[in-house]
Specification:
This protein is α+β, with helices and mostly antiparallel strands. Helix content is 34%, strand content 23%. Helix 3 packs across helix 4 (100-106). It is elongated.
């Protein structure tokens, strides 16, 4: 904690100088008594909410999430981390049970890579996960699970 006012002012001025080349609208508002510096900056990209969630047209907008749910690709990385923990704990294989939409995303067939050569295929997430873990992975769709829910079992 910076006790002297001159030291706090130097920190704030250094931050202002460091942000000076930034063409995006911003403001360094000063340091609080707790030693926190408040900086505001205009958003130039997408909100994190939009990067990790998607609108669900079938969901009522009055629910707390506002009719939004985590994107399947974001959930897939969460599943991958859980599977990695199972492997580190000694699993020789992994079985993933997930809500049907997530299970289908994880075990989807290869797709053509439209951005590159049309003959190139993008491996489905499930095959990439198997290669990353170095262990076999099986998937099961469980209709009893909600969209963002899954279980990872060591086999």
């Amino acid at each position: 904690r910076l006790a002297r006012r001159a030291a706090r002012d130097r920190v704030v001025e250094t931050l202002r100088a460091a942000l000076a080349p930034d063409r995006t609208a911003h403001a360094v508002l000063g340091m609080s008594a707790a030693g926190l510096v408040e900086i505001t900056r205009r958003r130039i990209g997408h909100a994190l909410r939009d990067a990790y969630t998607e609108s669900l047209p079938e969901a009522p907008t009055e629910i707390p999430s506002g009719g939004r749910a985590r994107r399947l690709d974001a959930l897939a990385f969460e599943v991958a981390e859980a599977a990695s923990r199972a492997v580190r704990a000694g699993a020789r294989a992994v079985r993933i049970s997930a809500a049907p939409a997530l299970a289908q995303f994880l075990d989807a067939p290869p797709q053509a890579d439209l951005a590159a050569n049309a003959a190139t295929e993008i491996a489905p997430f499930g095959l990439a996960l198997e290669a990353w873990l170095g262990r076999p992975v099986t998937y099961a769709a469980d209709a009893a699970l909600e969209r963002a829910h899954y279980t990872v079992e060591a086999v």
